[in-house]
What does this fold into?
Amino acid sequence: MNARMPLSFLALTTVVACGGPMLQGQEVRPPVSQGDRAATQASTAPARAAATITPEDMQRRIAYLASDELKGRDTPSPGLDAAADYIAKEFARLGLRPAGDDGSYIQRYALQRRALAADQVRFSIGGTAGARTLVAGKDYAAMPGVPARVSGAPVVAVRSLDPNAEALRGRIAVTYLAGAATSRDFFRALQGVRAAGEAAGVAATIVVLDPAVSEQDVARLLELNTETGPLALGELTSPPVFLVRHAAAKAVFAQAGHDLDAVRAATAPTELHGLTVELSAPVRIDRDDRAPNVVAVLPGSDPALRDEYVVFSAHMDHVGVRNMNASGDSIFNGADDNASGTSALLEVAEAFASMETPPARSLVFLAVSGEEKGLLGSRYYSDHPTVPIEKIVANINVDMIGRNAPDSIVVIGQEYSSLGPLVREVAAANPDLGLTVAPDLWPQERFFFRSDHFNFARKDIPALFFFAGVHEDYHQPSDEAEKIDADKAARVARLIFLTAYEIASRPQAPTWTEEGLREVRALTAGGR
Ligand SMILES: [Zn+2]
It folds into this structure.
């Protein structure tokens, strides 16, 4: 479980962690289930397969993944690689088909920490009355980009950047952004400008700031971009953005014979003739790394449906080694978060692999990394899927299922699709599981945004997120294997198996409710 919201909701290239207060030791209080009790009895084959999921197996797997040997499975780290290796070997032992890179179980993705190379920042404008070089941190701030240097490109003014505007391709776009340069709305708008510039193929974007933005604000913006950013996916692809103080912009444009107010009024792209602009804002790479996802497929048994997939996801990473606590422990073992979900993924895979006839649809087992760094591994997988994304009919995500009230499990996302009624039906048809399916009990914590199903939901894939809630050991060195309720974790894993069996077997694929799809699209709009 991620301690903050996805990166896309945060400011600039530099992200400020906003870990809100966690609920401490709160008990899960399920409402009385109103689920459909007319559920069909599970046939004996799935019931037998479900019975292979035992508390002992869950405890053994959790104990290994959460052992001090794996040092908290930080992304990237040798401990994380050891976890990935263990999962890949288990997939191989179960006879699952590799679905990573080049016939292996591992999908590797690039990770960087980067910032602005501040010593190489440059902004100069030449016009009819000579050239002028602006002062970084006083007249302007910059966000690094590609290309690092832009020289002599035509300059085009436009009130708002249209990502589809052909007239902006290869040009330096000049636009205007209202508001104080400190507000969340400003940073969100700035992200939009940056993304629109990239989509339109600009060479660089010049943002003229509000007259109210001070020199100190500009200095702070430059400093923010100079500090090492968080781990981010891949390599930087967006063009550089220059944020210019209003007075400075007005002076240089006037010098070149252009009126800044006309820039603000340009509803369609308008070329500013007679300007020669030289810009430089290269990226500084502070860390260049790679991290693993582990992916396997169990092919379905129905020739007509086996090209459709149900994806199980669980994050195998945690937060590594940090400052020690009062008892001298510095290893954040992440037993509940998320050795519990990873172990459920393996146990569910083992249960499916034990069946003589697998379900009709194919199953994808996906252990991701980088979840604690901002859902990075699942973001990468959903953008670079190893099965056709339009053929993924559902995502079942498992994150933290080993603690709190033994008689219930929270399943987030029930209200959005036919998966909600289905999981309640399966729970009602299997009273021996002793589990009541509860809705999201903590909407104020925004858990919908804080685990890997988010990245499937943003691709319009119906998803369920199994989650037993946080507790006093959440993101602490004390989240250790001996505190896990392995009996509960095994029963939740059985419920997941039986639910997934139904999803993968029924002729009709899961469907969104009309309102559910609309709401999920609104919720994931910032992360698309
Ligand atoms: Zn977490």
User: Anything to note?
Assistant: Residues 6-42 have pLDDT under 50 and may be disordered. The radius of gyration is 26 Å. The CA atoms of residues 182 and 339 lie 39 Å apart. The longest strand covers residues 283-298.
